[in-house]
Prior knowledge:
alpha+beta; 4-stranded mixed sheet
Amino acid sequence: xxxxxxxxxxxxxxxxxxxxxxxxxxxxxxxxxxxxxxxxxxxxxxxxxxxxxxxxxxxxxxxxxxxxxxxxxxxxxxxxxxxxxxxxxxxxxxxxxxxxxxxxxxxxxxxxxxxxxxxxxxxxxxxxxxxxxxxxxxxxxxxxxxxxxxxxxxxxxxxxxxxxxxxxxxxxxxxxxxxxxxxxxxxxxxxxxxxxxxxxxxxxxxxxxxxxxxxxxxxxxxxxxxxxxxxxxxxxxxxxxxxxxxxxxxxxxxxxxxxxxxxxxxxxxxxxxxxxxxxxxxxxxxxxxxxxxxxxxxxxxxxxxxxxxxxxxxxxxxxxxxxxxxxxxxxxxxxxxxxxxxxxxxxxxxxxxxxxxxxxxxxxxxx
Length: 367
């Protein structure tokens, strides 16, 4: 049959999915051509018409032939217009109503789609606005032991290919400082362990769980053990305040947060472990840096270590030019932060600091 299909024909003698056919509207009625040998004519007055289809963009033509109920689904606008022109006035009015119903249905569908999209956007915006709260809730549900596991995994990756110093005055100095500071963190669940790496980059980090890594480049840049202790106090504060875990959870994405909040901790911990080495390059927000600054300053005070070293070292780093410092990329300093540290230090009780048990000359000589 050369005529193109423009309708779908349903009857007991046709497949349940319908039979494609060509429908032509003539003054005497409909001509339905399934094939060259199968042509049927249906008088217009025998038709009942209603709108239908998923988007209500079809006309459903129904009639009965020899007791067999038959239907035709028509979407072709030319056929629909011809039916409106040639059928009886009441049928034409029904077609007009069907077309109007179709238009309303489409508008309702569009409105429903827009409302759905708007609702989804509102939910996403709400989740984004509450993301900090969700992150904190999720981190609170992560056991400390898992944090130790994640930190140890990150530590192994950081030390891969690095030259670790295992003994000598440098190791003794860093371990003594870490022990003195950690001793003021009463009831802390973290096991702080210091490792010194021979690397010219000015950097130090405390990983989730309490592993502390110090580069010799930072020790070379420091003028006193109090300056190094200031950096360590800042880094230990990030661990105690769980800033690293919060940044990891946030970086892992919303699904990880939801998994933790809903109790699927195994799935969440797998997602966090896949972050791998990214743990060491996580950047903290200004609020987190300020919190670590102030917590670290008070930690120094509780350990009877002068906070002046911390302020002096960070001020010098902020003014550095061309220095290979990774510390600034993850902990950007500013005059505002240095001024805040000075103001906070001035409010601390005036006590005589206890010198660190460190032979700084021997440390410098070993470097």
